[in-house]
Amino acid sequence: MLCGVRKKWKQPRHAGDILSVTVTADNERILSADAKGAIKCWQAETGEQLLSCNGPSHLVAVTPDSKYVFSSDGDHSARLWTLSDVNVVQKITHADMITCVTMASDSKYTVTGSLDMSLKIWEVATGKLTQVLVGHEGTVSCVAIANHYQFVISGSHDNTLIIWNLQTGSARLLLHGHRDHVTCVKLTADASIAISGEDALTQGRRNAATQGCINVVTQRRKDTLTQGRRDAVTQERRDAVPQERRDAGMR
Where is this region: Disordered (predicted)? Predict the structure, then answer.
């Protein structure tokens, strides 16, 4: 296990500021990226450097099967490459800066979002573009994909989230409730609940009563369970939240 284990890391180290650290799903390797474009792979147990290469390093993600890496330099392009031999599978592009990425749980697809207000779905093994999702009216800031490809959900600076049909590429549901830019979204393992957060200061509001809104949306009811404001579940939806969840920290 990585937790609680301290290792003496071997040379050579990074020459630039480290921007990200990612642990592979099997807990055997660590991928680190720095501001000078260096990406290094380390053996988690020993600290031995397994791989070092130069390339896009500002946004890095690894597929759950630990075979492929997505990396971007914060511009309109990214690379999909194999972790074993640094072979570039495909160059991924948007019309504007790529802002977010997520990987499917089976590692077959990756989804990217962009400043160009679109999302693109790519086949990881081939780099083939399979879908373009268009519907947001602002920068796409976050994205999550449901297991078994039930849907994709994305958040945007237009203060909304969209649930997309992966078969048709159409917007299945538009979710309102945030008053500021949506900054993050996550799904529960069964994809029945989505949790999203916002940037409460984008419009200069610093009132503690409206700062840092978190929305919880149930896919079964397709409505907002909690607005998160004033640290309380809204009374009209309180009966929809199980008592044990309220007692566990949703007061």
Answer: 224-251
Please check the confidence at residue 195 and state whether its pLDDT lies above 70: yes
The CATH superfamily assigned to 135-251 is YVTN repeat-like/Quinoprotein amine dehydrogenase (2.130.10.10)
Which residue in this structure is represented by tokens 């997520």?
A: 102
Cβ-based neighbours of 239, under 8 Å, separated by 6 or more: none
CATH number of this structure's domain 1-96: 2.40.128.630
The per-residue pLDDT for range 72-81, each reduced to its tens digit, is 988 899 999 9
Which amino acid would we find at residue 154?
A: S
Q: Is the full-model pTM beyond 0.70?
A: yes
How confident is the model over 120-132, as pLDDT tens digits?
999 998 989 999 9
